[in-house]
Amino acid sequence: MIVAERKPLEEIKSMLKGYRRVLTVGCGTCVAVCLAGGEKEVGVLNAELNIARKLDGDPIELGAACVERQCDMEFLDELQGLVDQYDAILSMACGAGVQFMAERFEDVPVFPAVNTTFIGANRDVGWYEEKCRACGTCVLGMTAGICPVTMCAKGLFNGPCGGTNNGYCEIGNDQPCAWYRIYERLARQGRLEQIMEIHPATEWRNQTPRTLVQAAYRKRKELAES
Amino acid sequence: MELKSGSNLEKILRAGHFAFTGELGPPRGANDAAVREKAQFLKGNVDSVNITDNQTAMVRMSSWAASLIALQEGLEPNYQMVCRDRNRLAMQSDVLGAYALGIRNMLCLSGDHQQFGDHPRAKSAYDIDSVQLIQMIKKMRDDGKFQGDADIDTPPKMFIGAAANPFADPFEWRVYRLAKKVKAGADFIQTQCIYNMDKFRRWIQQANDMGLTEKIYILAGVTPMKSIGMARYMKSKVPGMDVPDEIIKRLQGVDKKQVAAEGIRIACEQIAEFKEMKGVAGVHLMAIEWEHKVPEIAEQAGMLPRPQV
Fold it and tell me: Rounded to an integer, what distance in angstroms lies between the CA atom of residue B22 and that of residue B294?
């Protein structure tokens, strides 16, 4: 899922300076699961903002809403009508949701309440780890299910550098060396030949904005655009 | 004999001489006099001098610029390039420029992570890795083509170097990483500073057994210890460095004023062993911020005079 972290209150407050009526919108999918921007977090943020603005002698009227997915126009349509009553929208969705919100309601300023952090997994309650950089050229089959683009601090493709330190990365002892682990796991599976050949320079596919249309829906897209 | 680059280092190695290379760290400023001053200690005492590239991720005078100053001072530079700061476009254009201005050796490295240096939040490039960099430079030299396959007008004929660290784990993997660099097209290797001789002997034995030392020149890395503090720091703080306790004990066993001399003595003993070691084609002396000691070390290690080829 997409993992996000709420911005500090001060930063949110400074973005909302001068706005009196603001609609805070949560997102019910990734950011709700990672406890950053779901319905509950909308309530908490509004309560904090309310008090802070009162203390500043500049009260604010805050609305609250939460849609299933802000990265889907269909769900944003639900907000039509409600949005008209506000000067600005504070979106608690990931960067994709914020942008779709801003596109859907083009006349209203939309502000992000979270920092989109990474694509990650849930290690434990409230504990998330980055796992994927969405490079578009997945090599996990070769690397025993450990991503060198994400988990190696240098994003190397041909094995551990000279900085491996007792199984940890040279950047610090909290970070396991991805390639050390790749080596160990492949050795255990008897698949070391996977990394013996040179992996050539990556043809990066994430250097321009990407669009993906699944084959079965290409006609539909053509129709929509004609 | 047909040479790949015609560099002095290549000629020395091809002629079967035991190579002796040095290192020069560019200054943290535009101080060309500092480079010239360090160069004087190295001139005539080594076959080629590595010019480091923003080592430890600290901004320094660019390695190609310092290489050119070294060249003006009569040294043969070994131009280091790390993958951290440049993408493939910048790397290739710098190689063309370096060759056009007389640089003939290169050392291809991953580079220390930016988190070590004075710009820890910089965005790194790591567009390609060190193995891919070797491949790219070889393709430019031998095929006359850029990484993107277009033809190069005048290909840069570099003598291609790479690094190897026999001491970083997993140890069993290290010789295979060396094999990858051989296959990618490296002509010579300079190793990490060696202190654990037993481990190094095992590694070079593996390289011999796999036939790698017949395909590539391996220069053993030597860094004399200046002090006990340095030895302790290298042991505990430098990732991938293996300093056995015996080294520290030996330094502790001499009079305080003699520690540096003992460090040099240890280095010279290592060099003497490397001269006889099968698979080792030379020594790379990294006298870190101790360039002025190079003449003395070279003399004491019996490396002088350097052969003329």
Answer: 8
